[in-house]
Amino acid sequence: MRSFYSLLPLLNWHKKKMNDLTVDLLLGGKFRMPPEMFNDICAALAASCRYFCPECDAAGRAGFATVQKVTVALRMLAYGGPVDSLDEYIRMGESTVLETVNKFTRAIVAIFGPEYLREPNEHDIARLHAKTEERGFPGMLGSIDCMHWEWEKCPVSLHG
Fold this sequence. Notes:
By secondary structure, the protein is mainly α. About 55% of the residues lie in helices and about 0% in strands. About 15% of the residues are buried.
């Protein structure tokens, strides 16, 4: 087992890497979220899921920082595209990207689900009705989801 002092260079490297990525990604407005929110997500993931904590491999090389893993998961979910497109940007292999996205989505639901993925209570419904009424849609709860668009390649079994 390594002592705490032998891990200091690794921790300093991750701290520097995190600061560099935070400045580049967040202040550049890539994800359109405040840096505080991104940092809160990173901290919550690192605190609840060991996968998101920085570690060394068997050769003593530093693994991916929490910020790198969160960044790759957010980029995949926000922009889509092929997995290997992140290879040059984050320098993370395809299988690691897929594993990170899987663990990220499960951890986000586990951590933030009870607060944000719950049924609306009476207070929430009243607030939403008031907001939609002032926008000109009285009595609507939800959103218009573009149902008027024609789906050209719709399977015959789903035509309605």
